[in-house]
Prior knowledge:
Layout: H1 3-10, E1 29-30, H2 33-40, E2 50-54, H3 60-67, E3 71-76, H4 79-87, H5 89-92, H6 94-99, E4 103-107, H7 116-119, E5 124-128, H8 135-144, E6 151-157, H9 158-165, H10 175-183, E7 184-192, E8 197-198, E9 205-212, H11 222-234, H12 240-243, H13 251-254, H14 268-281
Parallel strand pairs: 2-3, 2-5, 3-4
Antiparallel strand pairs: 1-8, 6-9, 7-9
Amino acid sequence: MPKNLRDNKKSGRTNSSSVRPKKHLGQHFLKDEKIAQQIAETLSLEGYDHVLEIGPGTGVLTKYLLLRGTDLTVMDLDGQSIVYLNHSFPLEHPKVLEKNDRLKVIEADFLKFDLSRLYENRQFAITGNFPYNISSQIVFKMLDWRHQIPEFTGMFQKEVAKRICEPHGNKTYGILSVLVQAFYKTEYLFTVHPQVFDPPPKVQSGVLRLTRKTTYQLDCNEELFFRVVKNAFNQRRKTLRNSLKSFNLSPDLKEDVIFDQRPEQLSVDNFVTLTRMISNDAV
Length: 283
């Protein structure tokens, strides 16, 4: 443990300057209070009270989430952050705790954590200034829990946020685009420049909002749908006739014009139709 944090722990207090961003965790701490407030306000809080913040760092976003009256859990792998948020964050923000003292701090790896331990069958939202090195993996896990997550917002590398929201027919449209848009309405909200972070990343950042669709069950075999999408984009330069060879499609089915196309040309509805075709072909 760094000396400044160790000395502060002896007095029962730490301060935010004791929490330093760590490269191996992909951390870039947001410093801009206005942007933190804007991110907190991206949540509608409609139909749920529970919010999970991933990667709270020094709590700049945490503060504004608490001010909105959320039942908030924050999760981080960084022990320094956990110590600070547990011991000093409440003391530094007495006005926040006057309005809301519902804060739970957990030291854990989100990608490995069983969310049913926190929420059982309750609905909850996810937000955060996500570590860029695992942001796509966070989205994939969110999709696994989509039946309990009506809303998902937060900060990504701009390129990733744009890709998630990209419509079909564009070169950056890909696996994340299709899988997320199958179940959520996607909105790219605003761009954030590197100077508002410590340390500044080498790329711009973007904030998005995902709102679960009213009907978020697909009219096809969903497990097969995921497989079809991933296989198609794993060889995205090829036509579907070639990229989906591993499905052992019948010669008659492969004659359909849809197999002349490349994956970025297909909308979510087209992929649902394709999945049904492949499922029926296997019968």
